[in-house]
Design brief:
- The chain is of the alpha+beta class and about 130 residues long.
- The protein has a single domain, classed as 2-Layer Sandwich (Alpha-Beta Plaits), CATH 3.30.70.60.
- Helices cover about 40% and strands about 40% of the residues.
- It is built from three helices and four strands; from the N terminus they run βαββαβα.
- It is globular and about 40 Å long.
- The C terminus is likely disordered.
Length: about 130
């Protein structure tokens, strides 16, 4: 049975942009290999943590919204726990109708943002003087 999930993760702030992107791709691959269908991704950037985690005061935040079989979550969480660059994570399962409506609204919002970011910018028309 597939369920709706949200996976929030926090990466070490010491990672460079390429490493951050590589970790995001790593998580995406783990989810997809375990049968998840990713609906949206929210890039929250670097933020201050509420409290120190592994001596870090800041962290890079990201959130995946996806649909997956229940068994996939166990494997995904196991692989996240053994990854040293992920200092914190939280997975949330959406079950009742109210939660699912919220999940759909959030996914719609962030998938629209991805589409507009991926769309090429319109070329300004050249005007002759």
């Amino acid at each position: 049975m597939t369920r709706h999930y949200e996976l929030l993760f926090v990466l070490k702030p010491t990672l460079v942009e390429e490493e951050v992107q590589s970790k995001i791709n790593f998580l995406k691959e783990i989810l997809e290999k375990n049968g998840a269908e990713i609906s949206a991704f929210q890039n929250m950037g670097t933020r201050k943590l509420a409290y120190k985690v592994q001596k870090f005061e800041r962290g890079y935040y990201g959130v995946f919204y996806f649909v997956a079989p229940t068994a996939a979550i166990t494997e995904v969480e196991r692989l996240i726990r053994i990854n040293e660059d992920i200092i914190k994570f939280m997975s949330v399962k959406y079950e009742n109708q109210k939660e699912l409506r919220h999940w759909n609204k959030v996914v719609e919002k962030f998938s629209k943002k991805e589409e507009t970011a991926a769309a090429p910018a319109a070329e300004p028309e050249a005007t002759e003087a």
